[in-house]
Amino acid sequence: MTLAPDASTLDPTAAATALDAQDPLAHFRDRFVLHDEVRSYLDGNSLGRPLRATRDRLPAFVDEVWGGRLIRAWDEQWIDAPVALGDRLGAAALGAAPGQTVVADSTTVLLYKLMRAAAAARSDRREVIADTENFPTDRFVLEGVAAEHGLTVRWIEPDPSAGVTEAQVRAELSERTAFVLLSHVAFKSGFIADVPAITAAAHEAGALVLWDLCHSVGLVPTELDAWGVDLAVGCSYKYLNGGPGAPAFAYVAAGVQGALRQPVQGWFGAADPFGMTETYVPSRGIRQIISGTPPILGMQPIADMVTLIEEAGIAAIRAKSIALTEFVVDVVDSRLARFGVRVISPRDPSIRGGHVTLDHPAFREIVAELWQRGIIPDFRPPQGIRIGLSPLSTSFAEVAAGLSAIEERLAARQVE
Ligand SMILES: *Cc1c(COP(=O)(O)O)cnc(C)c1O
């Protein structure tokens, strides 16, 4: 097949060079651990790259803090770490005042705890609202909680290439709704939900809202306090570069903390953890969300990334994220569309998060080939790939290299 000359007007490599030269955040890339073998990392939305600061900090932590201070470190710094780190994250990325964010558990476990707490706080209401396109763990945990509490789930079926709208939520809300569970950025399409409008709609009906921020935290700024959000959770190994299995975080608005009781009442969420008391008395404030011993080791990389976000500024990170996803859409339109590749994410960047989902029947095979060559997007059945772009660690050149490799493979298949 010969390509129409006007179909390839954009030279991705040259365009990327110009964009990298203008990028005020370009220098942050050197703060990450990079390997030459990885020519293009397009999966920062699944597992962020490690920071060099983390590579250096972990041995120092073992040597000096764990090894040197030993059990004394609990009193000296660890006991406050889950809320202290939560407060920093809240200020840098969430729009949350201190005392409302805590680092603990995994997203899955925190979803369970907060859903149970929300269901109990609205125990006179028998329905919950969620959507069929949400991440599996969110749906699975919800089904379990619904079974435990005898709740009916009202499932919204959103447009898979967009996401849940305010109108769809309003259509399901009533005085029977206990809570609404949704994701801020849809993990498949990248669609950004209208958090303030949906939150306000839920409140008008007297329901609570629980937002999953896994695909937005550290990338798309939120104003949780200003938007009146009740509850939120998020993970830290995606755009917070916390590493595999890094702990998650929960946000519980100060205004609802007094009315909520989470179900896993362990000693570390008690008012006096080291008092070894007879009975459980919950800690005041956000600490009561904690159950067992906090994952101090797993918090170290998150702290490094929060420092980087503080330095770069979340608004600048979002601006680069938009530039990166716009670049992907432009390259796809000018170079890949003629092979039948389709963009499944919103084209309007104001409602698109940090990844662009593309669709083509050959992607399953192509991704396997690309991984061997150090080009790493992720494949999502049946035939999608997500181009996930972590703004501080991703260069435009890296994106161009990845998309050019996809173009090459698509072209080669037509000749074969
Ligand atoms: C990544 C992700 C999770 C992951 O939950 P874990 O408990 O960390 O495995 C949950 N929900 C959403 C929306 C996600 O994107």
UniProtKB/TrEMBL annotation:
Involved pathway(s): Amino-acid degradation; L-kynurenine degradation; L-alanine and anthranilate from L-kynurenine: step 1/1; Cofactor biosynthesis; NAD(+) biosynthesis; quinolinate from L-kynurenine: step 2/3
Record-linked PANTHER family: KYNURENINASE
EC number: 3.7.1.3
Reactions catalysed, as given in the entry: 3-hydroxy-L-kynurenine + H2O = 3-hydroxyanthranilate + L-alanine + H(+); L-kynurenine + H2O = anthranilate + L-alanine + H(+)
Keyword Amino-acid biosynthesis among UniProt keywords: no
The protein's required cofactors: pyridoxal 5'-phosphate
Role of this protein: Catalyzes the cleavage of L-kynurenine (L-Kyn) and L-3-hydroxykynurenine (L-3OHKyn) into anthranilic acid (AA) and 3-hydroxyanthranilic acid (3-OHAA), respectively.
Sequence similarity: Belongs to the DegT/DnrJ/EryC1 family.
Protein name per UniProt: Kynureninase
Pfam families assigned to the protein according to its UniProt record, in alphabetical order: DegT_DnrJ_EryC1, KYNU_C
GO molecular function: transaminase activity
Subunit and interaction comment: Homodimer.
Top-level lineage group: Bacteria
Species assigned in the record: Leucobacter rhizosphaerae
Keywords per UniProt: Aminotransferase, Hydrolase, Pyridine nucleotide biosynthesis, Pyridoxal phosphate, Transferase
